[in-house]
Amino acid sequence: MSSRMSATVGFLIASHDKPAQLLRLMQRLRKLYDNPPIACHHDFTRCSLEGFDYPKDVTFVRPHLETKWGGISLCHAFLALLRIVYQRADSPEWFVFLSGTDYPVRPARVALDQLASSGFDVYLDHCLVEYPWTPDPSVQYEPYAFKSAAWVPLAYDRYVAIRLWLPWYSWTQRKPIKIPIGIIRSKSLVAPFNPFSETLKCYAGATWFTCNRKAAERLLADSAENRALIAYFSRRFIPDESFLHTILCNQPDLKIDNENLRYVDWSLGGHHPKTLGVEDIPRILASGAHFARKFDLENGAEVFDAIDAAVDAASR
Fold first, then answer.
1. Are residues 175 and 61 in the same domain?
2. Measured between alpha carbons, how far is 289 from 128 in angstroms, rounded to an integer?
3. Which of 99, 243, 274, 301 gives a 20 to 30 Å CA spacing to 228?
4. Which domain holds residue 225?
5. pLDDT digits over 262-316, tens only?
């Protein structure tokens, strides 16, 4: 592959386990994208990387943050990664935010040509979070996940509504607990307790996305609005599915595609997508996505090897 690409790209990776799979992802990105900038936030309190020879030019966030599912820590880890990549003198035109269970499924030349020519600044799965919610007749809603008919009401309850709790003491758990007793959804009643307005609306969607340098600057801006949003979302459940979306989608000059260039299969239901296997490869490759998730190297390397072979053949 030529070292000249139509756009330059860097990768931000958030991980907390599966060190062998993380290494394979990094090695594949370096080969496919001609040694791009890679920054990784790994939660070393949850999994050691000792014994694995990671590429020397990969930058790890030090000191790392102790991440917790459902909390603000992933947002802080993402911002730390973004600062690392965009403090470089040769910072890339684009960045891709990945988890350690993602994998590239598109030739680099094709992916970078699309980024350079599409006219979009951001590829982000997103929707306006409002109440009451009326389904859009032009959208084909999926049975699960972020394009499900239940997603916006769920997001509203997570990010805007006010939950009422009764303090209690659990003798079985031997600690104080909170018992949910109700929820306030009225826009007029919740408005004094959140930062949203007619000019700052709440948005939500899938965490993983792709943005250009212009969008990165908005995310890193030390503005009163950004500070207020991170303080607010620090008190909300799973803020990584709304905090970044709310910043980006309230920038009127950013052109945002609602496709995040990821292949994900939610057909099994539940809170997590299906772990992809060899049988999924035809659909993955036909999707046009740049990356797919999620994979598990512990199930065997066959799916990774098959994807690599297909992508390499298409790159020639």
1. no
2. 23
3. 99
4. 9-130+201-315
5. 999 988 877 788 999 999 999 999 999 999 999 999 999 999 999 999 999 998 8
Instruction: Specify whether the CB–CB gap between 25 and 50 falls below 8 A.
Output: no
User: 76 with 68: CB under 8 angstroms?
Assistant: no
Close Cβ partners of 91 (under 8 Å, ≥ 6 residues apart):
10, 37, 85, 213
- Strand-pair category, 203-204 with 127-128: antiparallel
In contact, 102 and 181? CB cutoff 8 Å: no
Q: Render the burial of 101-129: b for 16+ CB within 10 Å, e for the rest.
A: bbbbbbbbbebbebbeeeebbbbbbbbeb
Judge if 186 and 303 occupy the same domain.
Answer: no
Closest CA to 8 of 64, 75, 90: 90
H or E element that contains 289: none
CA distances from 214 to 42, 120, 122, 136, 300 (A): 26, 11, 9, 30, 39
Beta pairing partners, 169: 176
Phi, psi of 94 (to 5 degrees): -130, 155
Number of structural domains, the chain?
2
Four-residue CA torsion sign, 276, 211, 65, 224:
negative
SS3 43: coil
pLDDT digits (tens, 9 = 90+) for 109-129: 999 999 999 999 999 999 999
Do 66 and 38 meet the contact criterion of CB atoms below 8 Å apart?
A: no
- Is residue 102 domain-shared with residue 217, that is, in the same domain? yes
Residue 278: CB atoms within 10 A of its CB come to 14
Instruction: Return the CATH number at 257.
Output: 3.90.550.10
